[in-house]
């Protein structure tokens, strides 16, 4: 599996197709909520296995000094084998390269165990996002 940084509109279309499959089709998130103004300013990554895009994630800096990891989506057929972990690693590597000290994210409650195994800690209350319960999580980045 390789991780590719999205550098073209076509690459974004490939990432967005995975997000639609996972969030809109599987989880019934309204399509109008899936695309937002952060997409244009985020760094997007694709996980590619045997020529097929099997996952995606985006990151942006907000607040200053912190990376926000979001829209992590892995196709159902690829949810074993570490695709999600490799995408999180890509965000953490990029964050360190940019000198960011922490990664924050909004986790669906059903995904919290995944992030906890990668060193993330939950904080704050549970809240609704697009009809799905979420909780904020963070990880301090070492050197």
Automatic annotation (TrEMBL):
Entries under Pfam families matching the protein: Acetyltransf_10 (PF13673)
Tell me where in this chain the N-acetyltransferase domain is found. Answer: 1-142
Q: Which UniProt keywords apply?
A: Acyltransferase, Transferase
Official protein name in the record: GNAT family N-acetyltransferase
Organism this protein belongs to: Motilibacter deserti
């Amino acid at each position: 599996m390789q991780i590719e940084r999205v550098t073209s509109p076509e690459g974004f279309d490939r990432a967005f197709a995975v997000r639609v499959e996972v969030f809109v089709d599987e989880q019934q998130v309204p399509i109008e909520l899936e695309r937002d103004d952060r997409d244009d300013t985020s760094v997007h990554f694709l996980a590619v296995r045997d020529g097929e895009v099997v996952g995606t994630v985006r990151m942006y800096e907000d607040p200053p000094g912190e990376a926000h990891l979001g829209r992590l989506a892995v196709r159902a057929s690829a949810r074993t084998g570490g695709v999600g972990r490799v995408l999180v690693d890509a965000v953490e590597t990029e964050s360190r390269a940019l000198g960011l000290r922490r990664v924050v994210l909004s986790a669906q409650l059903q995904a919290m165990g995944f992030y906890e195994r990668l060193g993330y800690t939950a904080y704050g209350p549970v809240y609704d996002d697009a009809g799905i319960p979420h909780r904020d999580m963070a990880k301090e980045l070492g050197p």
